[in-house]
Amino acid sequence: MTPVVARAPGRVNLIGDHTDYTGGLVLPMAIDRETTVTGEDRDEAVVRLTSAAFPGEAVVPLDIDDPASVSPGWARYVAGIVAVLGPRRGFIGEVRSDVPVGAGLSSSAALEVAVALALGAEGSPVALARLCQRAEQQACGVPCGIMDQLTSTAGVEGHALLIDCHALSVTPVPLPDGAEVVVVHSGEERALVTSAYGERVAECAEAEAEIGPLRLAGPADAETIGDPLVRARARHVVTENARVRELAAALGSGELREAGRIMVASHRSLGEDFAVSTPGLDALVARLCSRPGVHGARLTGAGFGGCVVALCEPGALEGQGWVVRAAGAASVRRG
Ligand code: GLA
How far is the CA of 303 from the centre of ligand 1 (A)? Predict the structure, then answer.
C-alpha cells in the first residue's frame, strides 16, 4: 500500500467569463487555497473518502456507471472521476479543503483534480483537465467549459494564465508588483447556476449556428444576429474575448488603472448582455470600486451570486475579503 498525497488549487478568474465553452479566451489564476486528498490504494473494488470539509462519506464502486445518482452531493464529483478514469484498484483516504464551496472559486474542479491524481491519473495538464471536465459534466449534468480544471492543473506561481480554450494553449502572464487580487463574497448563494448556465451555453450555440464560431467573430458579426437576446449574448462573448487580450496586455505593462477599467467593462457586459449578474453583485462592484486604491472589480466565474474579484493596491481592501496569491499547479506525491 503506497501512501499518496494529492493537492489541487482552486482558481479565481480575472477576466473571460462565459467564453471558455465557445473556445474563447480566459485569464484565470490558480489560488493559494487548495484541496488535498491523502490515503492509499486498496485491493477492493471501491473508493472511500471521508472529509472534514464536506458532510457524509463518498463510497464509490469502481464500476459506477451513473455518477449523478451518487450522494452526498460532493461524492458525485468523486464518482465522476472514478467513472471517467476507471482506476483498477480501490482507494481509502481523506479530503481536506480550504477552497470555499459555492463561492465561484472552483471547489469542485479542485476536488476532481486532487481525486484524479490520488487515483493515479497521469498525463499532461491539458489531458488531466479534460478528464476532470468530463467527470464534472457527468457528475452534475452541466455542460461546463475547461477553464476551472485547466487552471488547477496548469497554475504557475505569481502568474495569471492566458488560456486559449480552443487551442488549449496556456501562456503565463506575470502579475505586476504592487497589485493585489482580492476576492469578496457577495453574501448571495449562487442561485440558478445549473439551469441558467445550460441556457447560456444553448444561446451561444444558437449564435454560432447563425454566424459561425464566436471565437472568430468580431463585434460587427454579432450585430447581424436577428434575435435581440441571442445578439446580446454573442456581443458579450465577442467583446469579452477582446477584453481578455487587453487585460493581459495591461497587466503585462503594469497599467493597473487601465486593467481596472477593463474589469469593470467586463462586469457591465456580463450583467447587461449576458444577464448573469445580480443587483447584489452590481452593488458590491460599485462599492468596492468607490474605495481608494481599488483599480477595478467584477463578478468572477459563472455569476448569479457568489464572488467578486477586485484588483487593488496592497491593503486597500483589508478586512473586506480574501487576498489571493497566484499558486502553482496541482501535484501528487507517492511513498
Ligand atoms: C463555471 C464553469 C467554467 C466557466 C465559468 C464561466 O465556472 O465551470 O467552465 O464557463 O463558469 O466563465
Answer: 9
